[in-house]
Amino acid sequence: MTKEEILKRAIFKAVENGWKDLLSANVFKDINWKYAIKQKYHYSIIFSHNFARAFWKNDKTEPRFVDLRNWMLYDEECPTYCGDIWEYHLQNMVISKDPIKYLEQFVK
Predict the structure, then answer these.
(1) Nearest C-alpha neighbor of 53 from the set 80, 13, 108, 23
(2) What predicted TM-score, i.e. pTM, was given to this entire model?
(3) 3-12 b/e with 16+ CB inside 10 Å = b?
(4) How many CA atoms does the CB half-sphere of 8 hold within 13 Å?
(5) Cα separations (Å) of 28 from 7, 8, 9, 11, 33?
(6) Which domain holds residue 33?
(7) pLDDT in tens, 14-55
(8) Distance of alpha carbon 47 from alpha carbon 66, whole angstroms
């Protein structure tokens, strides 16, 4: 899957889950995604809290079973994750080498 396809699918999934921050559907269709990715315009979309909440809204991963040893905020005294799962995924996406590739595993 190309980065453009991944990004489109991710946005479509977030919209299906109730995300309303994107302008109109017509604007979404007219975006030159290759150019947007090259200029890194997509970061303002995929790194937003509202996008992440909607995108991972239906994620069935139980936070207490997430391996936190590689997570930036891991605390050995508290090895369980106490926040929402969308926060966990957003944090991992932000620190990943390729945030779009991180999203790919959730849009297949």
Answers:
(1) 13
(2) 0.72
(3) bbebbbbbbe
(4) 14
(5) 11, 9, 12, 9, 9
(6) 3-104
(7) 988 888 876 544 456 667 777 777 778 888 889 999 999 999
(8) 21
* Tokens encoding 12: 């479509």
- Token code pair at residue 100: 């779009």
- At residue 83, what is the residue type? G
Domain total of the chain: 1
81, two tokens: 């994750």
What tokens appear for 23 in the block? 């302008």
pLDDT digits (tens, 9 = 90+) for 52-99: 999 998 676 555 445 555 554 545 555 555 567 888 889 889 999 999
- Integer CA distances (angstroms), 45 to 48, 63, 67, in order: 6, 24, 26
